[in-house]
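Allow me, if you will, to draw on your knowledge of protein folds for a short while. I have a record of one protein: its chain in single-letter code and its fold written as discrete structure tokens. Could you please explain, in whatever detail you think fit, how the structure tokens follow from the sequence? The record follows directly beneath this note:
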Amino acid sequence: MPVSVSERITEIAEHQPDEAAIISAPPHGRESIISWHELEQRSRERAHILKKAAQSAAGIGVLHIPAFNTPATIVDMVAAARAGIAILPVDPNLPKEPRASLLRTIRKSYGPTIELNGSEAKTEGQIKTRPPRPAKYILTTGGTSGAAKVVVHPGPMTYDARRTPSLLLRSTGWRSAQRQYIMGPLYHAGPFTYLLTGILDANTIVISGHFEPTQVWKNIERYGVNWFQFTPTHMARLAEVCRPDTAKAGCRTIKGILHSAAACPHRTKREWLNLIGPERIYELYATTEDIGCTLASGTEWLKRPGTVGRGIFTQIRILDEDLRQLRPGQIGRIFMRKALPS
């Protein structure tokens, strides 16, 4: 049976109160650790503040949060999930006018937004006469057009032991209660959603503020990282500073690596296949809109270089310009849609 995020966080904290929930190891600065007991307490207090703010908006609200890669940001995201408030992670460097335009769009279609400032929460926007459906989070994407697009993921957020982690993640070497590294910015869909899944699956989250390749290799080895998701840009920069002994030491605890977000150059892909071996590296093709996805292991890629794999609970059709299905081997437009398991 699914349980609320609040119940799940409390359950983990009771089971392993002194275990690390979040480890922050920035390139410049001191290490800091938040235990599960501390995360439970701090996120519960912040959730209370958010609930009070949401009450003034008829229980509907969206927390827009500057998504720095810091423990404080993670605590507030967990607090929003515990309070049942949708999370809108925003690029902290987004200029003032685009940010204001984004928030106007959210308020127009969804209702009031909530901003946390210290121990206070500010609510802005009109209460909708027809409240929208609950949402887990709201993400922004440019898609292929470059124009800002808002993607609402329906909620509320819950924890279901039968579905967390998903079949997709289990297929990439993900294990419950593992050590998971967050490399990408938390306002991007991948790092954000894998963070939330990791927290609910009792993972220890390792985070380092901003991406610095040499520091990342040190952290992977120091904290015994088991799993992470990154992009081809991360892959290329990490490979540039990696010596064989660095890779051997850093990769000994890794069970799985997932790369996504862009097409990966063949040279970069082969560098990583040589570094870590094809059995531990996976490539994901997916969209922020969550219309379906494909997954390819390194072994599959070596057999068909350039493949992004087969659909995971996804129907795929290759059609011509008149939307007629093409035969295998023919080139056309790719159409995907999610196919949930029965």
Remarks:
- The radius of gyration is 21 Å.
- The longest helix spans residues 36-55.
- The mean pLDDT is 90.
- DSSP finds eleven helices and 19 strands in the chain.
